[in-house]
């Protein structure tokens, strides 16, 4: 009888040890869905953190004295985003280009841009959604140039979280007149009255 009890105790101890040694089942944790459109801005705050995306309308608040202000303008510094019509958009940088090839030497402003579609539906994008306001107050369309990389002039379609970036050229004169230029973005949405506005100084 004593041997049976001992055997039972040994068996119980072995089972307990196996249960303690068994690995704890992994608990599935849902991965957070990446949001590419939150990483469109390149500007940073004083603390080194990226500037948050914003759809705040602030005509005349950032660029005082800017001509041709509209009530729904979103004024931004280069590298900051404007949120409008389901897009998150920014100007990455700009620089004057006196000549792009042997035949196009009229002087241009090259503007590097980035567009991301936040909308759940696909949306069209186009290079001619971009315009430039010159220091004299004139607004000009983008210019077709050859022999250099640019945004596709045919435009395209962005699915949700899709993004595109590239260069847009504007003819400004050679040399480019000094002063404040304003890069304007307004998608071809008949129900949208909002524009993104970025200042570039030459």
Describe what you observe in this structure.
The termini are far apart. The model is unreliable at 7-21 and 26-31 (pLDDT under 50). The chain contains one helix and eleven strands. The strands form three sheets. It has a five-stranded mixed sheet, with no helix packed on it. Strands 2-3-4-9 form a four-stranded antiparallel sheet, with no helix packed on it. It is mainly beta.
Quick synopsis:
This protein has 202 residues and is mainly beta.
What's the CATH architecture? Sandwich
CATH class, named Mainly Beta
Span between termini? 101 Å
**Mean pLDDT figure:** 85
- Tally of contiguous helical segments: 1
The dominant shape is: globular
Alpha carbon gyration radius: 28 Å
β-strand number: 11
Unreliable spans: 7-21, 26-31
Give helix % range: under 10%
| H-E order | HEEEEEEEEEEE
List the helices and strands and how they pair.
Layout: H1 2-21, E1 73-76, E2 81-84, E3 87-97, E4 108-117, E5 123-125, E6 130-133, E7 139-141, E8 156-158, E9 163-171, E10 180-185, E11 195-201
Parallel strand pairs: 1-11
Antiparallel strand pairs: 2-3, 3-4, 4-9, 5-8, 6-7, 6-10, 10-11
